[in-house]
Amino acid sequence: MRILSQISKPDVTAKTQNPCLLLQTAQRVLGHEPNAQEETRWRLLQAATEVFAESGYHAATTREICKRAGVNLASIHYYYGDKAELYREVFRLPFLEECNTLVTMDIAQVTAREALQGFYGWLFPSAAEEDPMQRLFMRLHAREDAEPSGVLGDAMVQAFRPNHEKMQALLCREFGLKKPDAEVDRLVFAVFGLATVYFHNRMAVETFVPNLIAGKKAKEAMVQRLVEYAMAIIEAEAKRRTAAKQAKSK
To answer: I need a labelling partner for 213 at 20 to 30 A (CA). Which of 1, 22, 199, 226 fits?
Structure first.
């Protein structure tokens, strides 16, 4: 969180009429009930998510974000520095460890199937239809894909890194490796690609098969199929490695 010392402290007494849907997340992340300044920060994140999802990065205004959050214009500068950093922070929200099932798992204590269930379940939460923030995040990502802002840089790459490293560790364990080799790296991207294609090509999915991931049952079915597909390619790689070792020993 960026705080500019030369900017005066914003007024945190103003309240928005809309409930802050992120306050429960804030409490889990902070470990305590948010104080006035912390609540202002999370209200800004929610308002920014709404406005960016509705208007896109370039058309969104800091004035509208602050108005919706119920704070003064100095708040964005005080907490985030500028509009671009606020946008990057909004994109990091879904990757917070407490929101990310795979990252919080102890790889030594879970099966490959359980880890995959956690990862795909995080991407396709069955309750997303009832969760306004999940809908906003999905809408935001779809808009960024359709109208790239050019300001994210490697923010998304760094946010996703813990998932990548966790999956590497899982596959190394499955194959009895001390560190990932090129085949493990290929497989990591294949496992992730099974799911991420639905986000990067969401417009095509909704155009060609609009009900494929719409609703609780559809999402639950998607998660189960993705787990099965991923397990199949992991097992195929394990067989390939075994065959390669046997051929080499002859």
So the answer is: 22
Cβ neighbours of 51 (radius 10 Å): 24
CA–CA distance from 245 to each of 30, 39, 136, 236, 240 (Å)? 49, 57, 49, 14, 9
Contact between residue 170 and residue 231 where contact means Cβ atoms under 8 Å apart = no
The tens digit of pLDDT for each residue in 111-131 reads: 999 999 988 988 887 765 556
CATH number for the domain formed by residue range(s) 100-249: 1.10.357
Q: Could you give the CA distance from residue 231 to residue 118 in angstroms, rounded to a whole number? A: 13
* Residue range(s) occupied by CATH 1.10.10.60 in the chain: 23-92
The Cα–Cα gap between 52 and 141 comes to 10
Instruction: Give residue-wise pLDDT tens across range 3-47.
Output: 333 334 444 444 444 566 666 666 565 567 767 777 888 889 889
Class assignment of domain 23-92? mainly alpha
